[in-house]
């Protein structure tokens, strides 16, 4: 069985506790339950997916090789309460699990943003996972690992990035099919930036009286596509 670091899209890693990191930065959380709260983001390099709306293609390759201890030291420099590990696809690097565990031990409120193609097995139970189920218009729906649904915990969140009406209907169906309303803390519906107007998605949700949380990407409203925000 191959390790995560052997997976397609994962960067080559050297060293027992090394990670390839694209950037570490301090900003406001733009999505999910902690939206608006100051947060340190650790963006890992590499991703096996190629979603049509991806806004972090610069994280597909390159990056800097850092030991987990070096990453934690940089995070500490911001004196945060909240830390989000994101990508790319962070779980494509096996040492991501060590990083998550170490950040939790350090006392941070840690969240993980993952694209749903990699197994959640081994993720520290103290971590809040934000699982992005890929919709048909993403171009990567076939990569969803639905075995992850059974691994979600009550505090976790499931996100759907919706590009059009067909995506909306598909997402509604998946919420019901997998019983997500009773399984996770939040179900997030997000309009794909530049593809679907937020107002349109809001009207669909209200018309159907859906018990989901609609969210806009706060960081893009504030800073556009600026990297490191």
Quick structural summary:
By secondary structure, the chain is an alpha/beta fold. It is built from five helices and nine strands; from the N terminus they run E-E-E-H-E-H-E-E-E-H-E-H-E-H.
Q: Any chance you could write out the topology, listing elements then pairs?
A:
Layout: E1 18-28, E2 38-44, E3 64-67, H1 68-76, E4 82-86, H2 96-105, E5 109-114, E6 128-132, E7 157-162, H3 165-177, E8 186-191, H4 198-208, E9 213-214, H5 218-223
Parallel strand pairs: 2-4, 4-5, 5-6, 6-7, 7-8, 8-9
Antiparallel strand pairs: 1-2, 1-3
Helix pairs in contact: 1-2
Function: Catalyzes the complex heterocyclic radical-mediated conversion of 6-carboxy-5,6,7,8-tetrahydropterin (CPH4) to 7-carboxy-7-deazaguanine (CDG), a step common to the biosynthetic pathways of all 7-deazapurine-containing compounds.
Pathway: Purine metabolism; 7-cyano-7-deazaguanine biosynthesis
Enzyme class: lyase
Strand order of the largest sheet: 3-1-2-4-5-6-7-8-9
- Rounded radius of gyration (Å): 17 Å
Which stretches are low in confidence, meaning pLDDT under 50 for 5 or more residues running? 1-6
**Strand percentage:** 15-25%
Average pLDDT figure: 92
Number of helices: 5
**Cα end-to-end separation:** 37 Å
Question: What pattern of helices and strands is seen along the backbone?
Answer: EEEHEHEEEHEHEH
**Structural class category:** alpha/beta
**Helical percent range?**
10-25%
Task: Give the number of DSSP strands.
Answer: 9
Broad shape: globular
* Largest pleated sheet: 9 strands, mixed
Subunit structure: Homodimer.
Function: Catalyzes the complex heterocyclic radical-mediated conversion of 6-carboxy-5,6,7,8-tetrahydropterin (CPH4) to 7-carboxy-7-deazaguanine (CDG), a step common to the biosynthetic pathways of all 7-deazapurine-containing compounds.
GO molecular function: lyase activity
Keywords: 4Fe-4S, Iron, Iron-sulfur, Lyase, Magnesium, Metal-binding, Queuosine biosynthesis, S-adenosyl-L-methionine
């Amino acid at each position: 069985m191959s390790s995560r670091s052997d997976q397609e899209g994962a960067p080559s890693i050297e060293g027992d506790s090394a990670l390839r990191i694209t950037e570490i930065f301090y900003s406001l959380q733009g999505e999910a339950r902690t939206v608006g709260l100051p947060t340190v983001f650790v963006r890992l390099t590499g991703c096996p997916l190629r979603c049509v709306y991806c806004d972090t293609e610069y994280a597909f390759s390159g990056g800097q090789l850092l030991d987990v201890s070096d990453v934690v030291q940089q995070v500490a420099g911001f004196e945060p309460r909240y830390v989000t590990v994101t990508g790319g696809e962070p779980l494509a690097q096996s040492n991501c699990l060590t990083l998550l565990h170490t950040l939790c031990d350090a006392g941070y409120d840690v969240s993980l943003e993952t694209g749903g193609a990699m197994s959640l097995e081994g993720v520290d139970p103290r971590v809040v996972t934000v699982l992005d189920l890929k919709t048909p218009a993403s171009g990567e729906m076939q990569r969803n690992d639905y075995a992850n649904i059974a691994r979600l915990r009550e505090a976790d969140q499931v996100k759907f990035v919706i590009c059009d009406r067909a995506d909306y209907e598909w997402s509604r169906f998946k919420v019901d099919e997998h019983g997500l309303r009773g399984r996770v803390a939040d179900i997030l519906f997000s309009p794909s930036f530049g593809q679907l107007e937020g107002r349109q998605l809001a009207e669909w949700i209200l018309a159907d009286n859906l018990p989901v949380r609609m969210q806009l990407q706060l960081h893009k409203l504030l800073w556009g596509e600026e990297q490191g925000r």
